[in-house]
């Protein structure tokens, strides 16, 4: 009786070992893959080496793996990495690149066409679920790409969370950006409601309990406010500027297909004001504190209300 040899476990090159990439690379190593990780930060490389991966000295070395995962800030960085000479040489025909960053869908399609000319496949697989989801392998993964190629990388993605097939290449990045535009808009209006309710004398815990059992419920009421804003830690691990980047991707996408993103544009403007005031490293949940800080002091608010009544 002949035995069929099991397919060898693919080696994985992982480029971008930040707040998300670092725990994701660890899970892939724990899942039995040889992980060749690269990041500009020496601390991130040391962390990978301590978590079962192999730190390499260049993106080109990481790109020599069977499957190359990118978890980088944005499309500009993704493009620069994929056009790096050493990466281009390492990506021989048949290789698969998975861009798990939250990138721009139109640029993703352009990159996919560029890679396809050299026989290299691109899958987009951005994620939702935050740093906690990355640490626990419970990310929602929005996957775009050719069905047969996605089939081949699905076992890798399943080590990180729940893959949902969104469509052709670029579809994952599109749905991710649209999700974050909704999420950011929810967080803004939830924060306005929470600040106003507390000013009126309502207990914030009671408000959240009511919202979470009512139609005002969202990820902002059941996760962000109770876990990162009310305790005052503001440490969700998702940067404010990364959120703003995603919102702009979504509004540009809407406009490109003829939809005027009226509320989306307003949300981008509001978040941009907060980004101008807050530190470059600010967590996105800090918008709640910023909104509270821009409210009138209670005495001025009373005066304004009285003037409004007499006008
Ligand atoms: P991060 O800033 O913590 O990590 C990005 C990493 O990329 C850094 O370690 C940086 O040194 C590295 N890097 C930058 N340029 C590089 C280059 N040329 N070569 C190699 N490494 C390079 O960001 P993050 O929070 O991990 O987010 C990564 C992506 O995931 C972003 O697109 C973000 O929008 C998305 N995302 C983040 C979260 C979150 O909760 N943090 C959730 C979902 C999606």
Automatic annotation (TrEMBL):
Keyword Cell inner membrane on entry: no
Keyword annotations of the record: NAD, Oxidoreductase
Molecular function per GO: NAD binding; NADP binding; oxidoreductase activity, acting on the CH-OH group of donors, NAD or NADP as acceptor
Residue stretches making up the 6-phosphogluconate dehydrogenase NADP-binding domain: 11-164
Domain of life: Bacteria
InterPro entries per record: 6-PGluconate_DH-like_C_sf, 6PGD_dom2, 6PGDH_NADP-bd, HIBADH-like_NADP-bd, HIBADH-related, NAD(P)-bd_dom_sf
SUPFAM superfamilies documented for this protein: 6-phosphogluconate dehydrogenase C-terminal domain-like (SSF48179), NAD(P)-binding Rossmann-fold domains (SSF51735)
Pfam families membership: NAD_binding_11 (PF14833), NAD_binding_2 (PF03446)
Catalytic residues (UniProt): 176
Residue ranges annotated for the 3-hydroxyisobutyrate dehydrogenase-like NAD-binding domain, each copy included: 170-290
Family stated for the protein in its record: Belongs to the HIBADH-related family.
Identification of the protein by name: 3-hydroxyisobutyrate dehydrogenase
Source organism of the structure: Mycolicibacterium canariasense (Mycobacterium canariasense)
């Amino acid at each position: 009786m002949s035995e069929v040899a099991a397919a060898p476990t693919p080696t994985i090159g992982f480029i971008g070992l930040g707040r998300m990439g670092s725990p994701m690379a660890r899970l892939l190593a724990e899942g039995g893959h040889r992980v060749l990780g690269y990041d500009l930060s020496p601390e991130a490389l040391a962390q990978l080496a301590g978590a079962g991966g192999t730190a390499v000295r260049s993106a080109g070395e990481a790109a020599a793996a069977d499957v190359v995962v990118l978890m980088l800030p944005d499309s500009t960085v993704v493009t620069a990495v994929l056009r790096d000479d050493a990466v281009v040489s390492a990506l021989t025909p048949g290789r698969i690149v998975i861009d798990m960053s939250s990138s721009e869908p139109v640029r993703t399609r352009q990159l996919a066409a560029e890679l396809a000319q050299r026989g290299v496949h691109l899958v987009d697989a951005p994620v939702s679920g935050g740093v906690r989801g990355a640490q626990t392998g419970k990310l929602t993964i929005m996957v775009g790409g050719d069905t047969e190629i996605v089939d081949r990388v699905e076992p890798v993605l399943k080590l990180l969370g729940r893959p949902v097939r969104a469509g052709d290449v670029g579809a994952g990045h599109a749905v991710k950006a649209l999700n974050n535009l909704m999420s950011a808009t929810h967080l803004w209006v939830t924060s306005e409601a929470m600040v106003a309710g507390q000013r009126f004398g309502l207990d914030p815990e009671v408000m959240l309990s009511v919202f979470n059992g009512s139609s005002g419920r969202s990820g902002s009421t059941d996760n962000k406010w109770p876990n990162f804003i009310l305790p005052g830690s503001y440490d969700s691990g998702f940067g404010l500027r990364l959120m703003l980047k995603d919102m702009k991707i979504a509004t540009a996408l809407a406009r490109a297909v003829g939809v005027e993103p009226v509320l989306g544009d307003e949300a981008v403007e509001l978040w941009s004001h907060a980004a101008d005031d807050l530190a470059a490293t600010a967590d996105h949940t800090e918008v709640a504190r910023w909104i509270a800080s821009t409210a009138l002091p209670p005495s001025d608010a009373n005066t304004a209300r009285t003037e409004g009544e007499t006008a």
